[in-house]
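User: Study the shape:
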Amino acid sequence: MKKYSSLLLMMAICFLDSSAQSVLNVLNTDRPDQSDGSHVVEINHFQIETGLQFSKLDESANGMDNVTLIRYGVVKKFEVRLLNQYTVIPDVNTISGFQPLTISFKNLLWWQKGLLPKVTIVSYFKLPVTLSKAFKGEHLGYTFTISMRHEIAGGLKLYSNIGISRDQVTLDKSYLSAVELNYNVTDRFAVYAEYYGNFAKNVSASNGMDIGFIYALKNNFSIDLALGSPTLNLGVNKFISFGTSLRLPQ
């Protein structure tokens, strides 16, 4: 779930063409966009994806996040994940610390068959445990997302997400969605544009957009960059992020 913490312009090789994957075995990441991809990490492989995001939160406040996702392929269609996020919010008194730890799972249900897309279920469980008093979570938070991918033609792909999330503090539920067009310029370089939204009963709906790209320097190592706005208002809310991803063994 990558989630509001991240990304305005992105370097994304995250979603490489499946035929390129089979020939080159270039890693496929969940960075740097806001949505979850449909790829599951290979069996007995670790994948570490980390990055920095610098955000303008409003007209006067800025923020910084370091998000690290560790993924491990358990079986062919299932992976376990651990998500850690360190946040800094400069203010009159700077607020900083680790967000509650998140455990996540990804399960591939089926591959694309004609008009039926490739479908993966991604779940996140945000634990009420943290080392930082500034970011305490009183309850278990969760997000369940259905991730879909359509291969269109010539390296062009359509990704989409729908999901539900529960807040750790208020226990309010929100509903999220995302649509992304992704294009493989080469086997190692991909670009994308993404539109995403969030709707909750007790707060105003939010709609955001980001663009980005990723480049694989090696089959198991990539860099990415992203730019966007979670409110479609670049004057008030915007972010830029960059990061790296590494798969071990290669």
